[in-house]
Amino acid sequence: MARGEVKASWRKPAGMLAILLLILVWVVIVASFSSQIGALPILVQLVIYVVLGIIWITPLKPMLRWMETGNWRLPRN
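^ thats the sequence. predicted structure below, dont judge the formating
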């Protein structure tokens, strides 16, 4: 490989598609419970939607690490 040449990786497009799929699946799951959540008091709804809005972020860190390095976990020292 010549100096300055960047080798394209298939992990970034695959990871991007996986993230979009994760978001789509999560939205469908949460939306399927919207009528039950909507029947709860507004402050309970707020807490539920904040928690559900944060939970989907959890798998992103290993996914982003894999996209960059090809490893799912941090290397052991």
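Residues 11-32 form the longest helix (22 residues).
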